[in-house]
Amino acid sequence: MTITKNKVVLMHYTLKDNSGDILDSSEGHEPLAFIQGIGNIIAGLEEQLEGKVVGDKAKVVLAPEKGYGHRNEENVHIVPLSGFQADDDEKLEVGMQVRVETNEGVSIADVAKIEGDEVTLDLNHPLAGETLHFDVEIIDIREATKQELEHGHAHGPGGHHHH
Asked: Do the beta carbons of residue 87 and residue 99 sit within 8 Å?
């Protein structure tokens, strides 16, 4: 079976940046399960995996345009510190991730800077502007079930778990 739209793919992957540092990897975990062709994973990677078969190994290098895009300074916002309700007196600290309401719905922002009573939030994806180096190995391919297609993600090992 080959990887085409609406197939569930199980793959092991390691993601490195340009300097060869590992950013993310499924090594030692269940392989990642995703449904091809519906945006479960970044489009550039989907394109490269189309047509692959079980056992295939691939090195995929994605420029930022095909990955998480370029950094956009419009995604950096300065907001008043008073707008944050700390949970359990947890202090807001640089490097924390916070949920913010945007026009597009809830988004995750990195706290980039705290100065006086102003907080700088960065809504860019942490990997924006990075060239992504994927090493992937295709472990399994199967038809997606009707339920998986309705839910928009793979179920079972390596898939989407509901807690």
From this structure: no
Please measure the distance between the N-terminal and C-terminal CA atoms of the chain and give it in whole angstroms.
Answer: 32
Q: How many CA atoms lie within 13 A of 93 on its CB side?
A: 5
With tokens 């499924």, the residue in question is 26
> CA 152 to CA 68: how far, in whole Å?
20
- The matching CATH number, chosen from 2.120.10.30, 3.40.50.2300, 3.100.10.10, 2.40.10.330, for 73-122 is 2.40.10.330
Q: Is 146 exposed, middle or buried (0-12, 13-18, 19+ CB in 10 A)?
A: exposed
- For residue range 44-79, what is the model confidence (pLDDT) as tens digits? 999 999 999 999 999 999 999 999 999 999 999 999
Continuous segment of H or E residues that includes residue 60: strand 57-62
Look at the chain and count its residues: 163
Tell me the pLDDT tens digit for each residue of 109-149: 999 999 999 999 999 998 999 999 999 999 999 999 999 99
Class of domain 7-68+128-151: alpha beta
